[in-house]
Amino acid sequence: MTSSFVDIMNIQRQMQYIFQAKPAINMPAIFSDGTEFYRSPAQPTAADDIRVRIRTATSNVDMVFVIVNGQRVDMELEKSDKAFDYFVAVLPHSDQGKYEYFFEIHGGRVVCYYNKLGVVRDLNPDYNFEICCDFFTPEWARGAVIYQIFVDRFANGDLTNDVKDNEYYYLGSGSRNVKDWGAYPESMDVSRFYGGDLLGVWNKLDYLQELGVDVIYFNPLFVSPSNHKYDIQDYDYIDPHYGRIVVDEGECLKDGDTVNKHSERYISRVTDKRNLEASNKFFADLVAEIHRRGMKVILDGVFNHCGSFNKWLDKECIYEGQEGYQPGAYVSADSPYRSFFRFHNEYEWPYNNSYDGWWGHDTLPKLNYEDSPKLYEYIMRIARKWVSPPYNCDGWRLDVAADLGYSAEFNHRFWKDFRKNVKEANPNAIVLAEHYGDPKEWLRGDEWDTVMNYDAFMEPITWFLTGVEKHSDEFRGDLLGNPDAFFGAIRHHMSRFHQQSLEISMNELSNHDHSRFLTRTNRRVGRTHTLGPHAAEENVNKGVFREAVVFQMTWPGAPTIYYGDEAGLCGWTDPDNRRTYPWGHEDQELIAFHRDIIKIHKSYDALMRGSVRKLYGDHKIICYGRFTDRQRVVVIINSNYEEKGIAIPVAIIGVPNGGFMRQIMLTTEDGYFMEQRNHLVKDDMLKIQVPKISAMVLVEED
């Protein structure tokens, strides 16, 4: 067999490696990860040949191997430049379509290994690289800017569908229409409504588009008695209080009446099919308009539990005797929905109150899939329905996804079937789960696409910049400004993701379950019932908040803005984090800053899908690089109350000596600045003065 010229050159180069004396292995130069440059194809099928690369310093090591599924494979020198050698290998085919691998590097008498922890002498296989073939996540979600909307508090476009005072009774009080849009939420806020609706969202699409939003994630939209709507009443319909009310008949409850069977107005609004169909039609039109503008829509799916108002249970008896509705399982032992819930007293009907509630809440009856194939298929139909015509939504965010079912085995079965149903209906739809803790067992290509990224994003940056727990319930001085704790947590929790999951993970600073990040910058422990809502706005630091947003827009994943964060909204944890958007009172400088940093996020491929590498860490200072083979971005965050001079080893991400890194954004306590400055790279280092309470973004490109 005749060797090619490339083969001969590789052999000669390997011989040179063997017989020439080598300096000590340059450990910081070694790098590989799951991005497309270092592993291709990015989302392989089981039939694909998969190529992996690793980078070392030029002429610095003797041999490199990849150990894949227990088999050692030689890696060939593919190419070199002034700084690095690149080694490549094709992985031996796996019949199971699953690969686990790490690298073995030899230099002189030194042998080291490389996995997700970086260069190590002793391997922990839990951190080895992994590939699951046929695991496809939506391309549109990679680095997408998501905007989360809690509908009741965003914008009121239709006054005729507002919830009325005493329209119905729930959780100890009659429903209440809040006339003052700027009023603070109360400690018990579930039955208070400000009137936000889907027409209000439609009216603000220009604003969202100009901000740079790619995806709108809606908190639940389906019929529900609460303002948060995580207690769903009817999965088949958009709540007419958010949509259209075309038939509006009957009386509200009289003062002192707590029996919802008497709530004629509410029953008319949410059970009359004319209202329900009109609301679904309006929503379909809204999604079409959002799509016309080039944006996507993610729905909130609450499938672990429903609500006590739900038509299948009907604890409030509002469907009892209504035309077109069958009796609920609370009402009748003969209900077709009896198996949808787990009852413990077989002799209590009619009006059986012995059902399981999620965490014991009788307003949140847990759904009993194990005993009800009919319920199982019903929810699979719902999964398909809303991502299919005429609605065409672009995916689901799944509430308390790990809690669903009564066993871990069933939970995994459910999500496998759920994914199959969603992807068959809409192959480009996302399946995104709310999850705290290690998500690895659900991220193997056949259940979830990704998660809300608490552990590898929200928590580490919150502790580092504020020292405050994400609910503002605890202060930890040992974590405030601690770079080792920050990078250690980030590295560990990121290792639980496959690359295609990491690049679309929902990276939030705030949401409807936690305090607003701007409030956390006051470094106080509190809630609205302990300190009052005003305290959430006191002594906040917009400079620290801007640092967090720079991190959000330059870190791997899909940066997700909780409505109003960009306008300076504050708030303790739920319910204070659900304040209304401050239309007419926005912090315009913060909005402009978000527009500009979003443009930067979208302008650089390194930020959308590049590798990430720690470059520097010191007390209250972190620095990291994002890079591709043609582009390098350096981000420096300094939370000290004094300027610092630092030296950053930018050569390890490929920035050449004698070149310049161009500063494209600087934020400080005083504001932010887009004026560009060049900084010289000398002796493989970027030596730079970093202002106090600042974040800086620098770029170098081929």
Describe the main β-sheet briefly. Answer: 9 strands, antiparallel
CATH architecture of the largest domain: Alpha-Beta Barrel
Q: What is the C-level CATH assignment of the largest domain?
A: Alpha Beta
Radius of gyration (Å):
28 Å
Strand content: 15-25%
Structural class, please?
alpha+beta
Tertiary shape: globular
- Total number of helical segments? 15
Number of domains as seen in the coordinates = 4
**Strand element count:** 33
CATH superfamily grouping of the largest domain: Glycosidases
Q: Give the mean pLDDT.
A: 95
Detail the poorly predicted runs: 1-21
Distance between the termini: 39 Å
Helical amount: 10-25%
Under CATH, the topology of the largest domain can be stated as TIM Barrel
Description:
This protein has 702 residues and is α+β, with helices and mostly antiparallel strands. It has 4 domains: 5-134, Sandwich (Immunoglobulin-like), CATH 2.60.40.10; 140-159 and 196-243 and 267-307 and 361-602, TIM Barrel (Alpha-Beta Barrel), CATH 3.20.20; 308-360, no CATH class; 610-701, Sandwich (Immunoglobulin-like), CATH 2.60.40. 23% of the residues lie in helices and 23% in strands. It is built from 15 helices and 33 strands. The strands form 7 sheets. Strands 25, 26, 27, 28, 29, 30, 31, 32 and 33 form a 9-stranded antiparallel sheet that branches. An 8-stranded parallel sheet has the order 22-21-20-19-16-11-24-23. Strands 3, 4, 7, 8, 9 and 10 form a 6-stranded antiparallel sheet that branches. α6 runs parallel beside α7 (408-425), α8 (454-466) runs antiparallel to α9 and α13 (542-554) packs parallel to α14. The longest helix is centred in the middle third of the chain and has 20 residues, at 273-292.
